[in-house]
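HUMAN: Would you supply a protein with fold tokens?

ASSISTANT:
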Amino acid sequence: MATERLRYNTENRDAIVLFLENGGDLEMAKLNDIQLKLLDRWRFADEKLRENKYSREKVADFIRGKYQISRDTAFRDIVNAEYVFSSTTPLNKKYAIGRRIEFLERKINEAYIDNDRLGAALLEKILQKYYEKYPDEHAPRSPKKIVYNIIQNNKTLVVNGSEDEVFSVDDAMIEADDILKKLEDKDDY
């Protein structure tokens, strides 16, 4: 019981956060053996979460399989990993909405299996709102990647995969300045 309490108190989490804030330097912030094991599990959990391929349940199964721990402990590790590494991960709205859509679709299927038509209809209505919020992909209005290959005072301009005429170095620099000026004037620079 004392080991359980030691493994899951916030002091361990705070010590690990301090350790990471100091760049992972063991001299600045010392971690005991339990905290090092927790950090290893939390890093694994964070890595699986960042892959954006698996549900939380599947990530918990990966943690359980690798570290031979209980289901509850695996879910606690996920929560702690999100807490510890959240400062390095900005909110990915598209990902979060996508996860909610997957969850609702699963719940709708379960409602239909349970013959709960009213519950399924209510969930469908909520699902529609998430579909409206899900961001669409928009093509960029201007090229984001311009490559100048300058070889022996000649330059081949490559814009979005197509090659154009050959310029001298001076002409290429003037052309590059013109393109940059045009891009800076637009709002999607």
